[in-house]
Amino acid sequence: MAQVAGRHPLSFLNTDGKPHPVENSFAAVTMLLGALAAISSIWTDLHLLSSWAGLAGILTGAWGQMISATTGERFVTIIGLGAAAVGFYLGIAHGGLLP
């Protein structure tokens, strides 16, 4: 009897049908750090958080882009990388990496 297999919420990242836990983790962490950096860069007093989260997001995004295996992973990584870069640059403009 044929049954419908359940789809995982992040299954669009594995478009080749193979699991990529490391690559998916880098994409998710880059997106999380990018969102944190971009949102925290709105407040000038949070320049330390936005600049360090942005720098970490840029580094994880660059490595995640190098090891990504599918288009979905690259898409999520680039969106997170852009947000991390915006947060990093605004954090630097608001006060930099050091207090």
In terms of DSSP E residues, the strand content is under 5%
Number of strands: 0
Low-confidence stretches: none
Share of helical residues: 55-70%
Report, as a whole number of angstroms, the end-to-end distance: 64 Å
Query: Structurally, how many domains make up the residues?
Result: 1
Radius of gyration: 16 Å
Largest sheet: none
Task: Work out the helix count.
Answer: 3
Nearest-integer average pLDDT:
91
Protein name: Integral membrane protein
Transmembrane segments: 26-43, 49-68, 75-97
Keywords: Membrane, Transmembrane, Transmembrane helix
Helix-strand blueprint:
Layout: H1 21-40, H2 47-67, H3 71-94
Helix pairs in contact: 1-2, 1-3, 2-3
Structure description:
This protein is an all-alpha fold. It has one domain (20-94). The chain contains three helices and no strands. The chain has helices at 21-40, 47-67, 71-94. Helix 1 (21-40) packs antiparallel against helix 2 and helix 1 packs parallel to helix 3. This is Integral membrane protein. The chain crosses the membrane at residues 26-43, 49-68, 75-97. Keywords: Membrane, Transmembrane, Transmembrane helix.
